[in-house]
Amino acid sequence: MRPLIACALALSLFGSQNLSARPALRDYILTGAKPDHLFVIDAAARKVTSDIRVPDANGIVGLVVPSPDGKRAYVLVNRMESISGIDLDTGKQVFRANLSSGDEVVHSFFSVNITPDGRELIVHELPTKRGLNEYHVQEPRFAIFKTDAGLDAKPVRVFPAPRRVHLVLPKADGKSFYALGFQLFEYDLATGKKLGERGIRNWGRPGYSTPDMLAFWPVTEPLDVFVTPVYSTLGTGKDAIAKTSLMKLDLKSGALSYQDFEDTSAVIFSAVASPRNGEVFTVYTQLSKIDTNKGVLVDRVNLPHTFYTINIASDGHEVFVGGTMCDVAFYDPDTLKQRANLKLPGCPDQSISTLRVIRR
User: Fold this and answer.
1) According to the CATH classification, is domain 72-199 in 2.130.10.10?
2) What's the rounded mean pLDDT across residues 172-193?
3) CA 181 to chain CA mean position, Å
4) Domain ranges for the chain
């Protein structure tokens, strides 16, 4: 055998062995809990792998935003006045933005997210000036932070924002982002220019009332799709029928759609789109499965207690529910039967924390 060919073959074999030796990627669940916990859970093993204590959380760990590479989690703490970035391997705080300073008190109501390249955080801020005996409400704004800014992060760009924003959803191309509230706004990330506005409350569906929603959990994995229940009535007077619909926002294409699936019969808090067969799963006191290809409710089961938030395995073969109490439950997406229930160590209250899934 010629030396060059032998060398190439050896390198090829080594490369194949090296690739096969790499550990397969796994799903990990992130959730927060009172007073200062950030949990990392191995989904397949049903095991807590890390119980990280977030510094100066001041009683609650709410919104959880993972970095695109799954190495960090940014959590809204200190009663929505601070953002803490945690290295998930070391458990150390590597980023901190305290939004309030001096006589200005600043909150962000669930509306924090990270750009697809992981380099910037987008924060919707609600500032108030504190006087001697009164508060002066200021105009809302978007603040952009660099994620490598360390433990005393300050915004690098600030621009005006609308009120009543409770979610920020970056578009997949990284050039713009959506602000979701009474309307759906789109802004240029670099300049803050408003690029568009589409209806939520004035959604333009003839015969339907003004819709309502409760959308506090920015779950878009694994498809880059945000989906949430929407409530309205069809018709008027005695003929009015309460309807539950799904609002779907595709963060790749920007497509926004609404789809009825039942006459309202259950309260739903949050939803997640599955990578399998156009399925969507929703949760509150019941776990529901919806076929979006047909626009119908497929199945619904009662849960042992209320769960606020939901997510799904990257391959769609398991549904996760959490929030509210101290357990995360695992469900079969075909039968909606519970497969497992994991109690968090010490049984801390997850409350309104977001359930996120990373793949590492």
Assistant:
1) yes
2) 97
3) 15
4) 24-53+205-360, 72-199
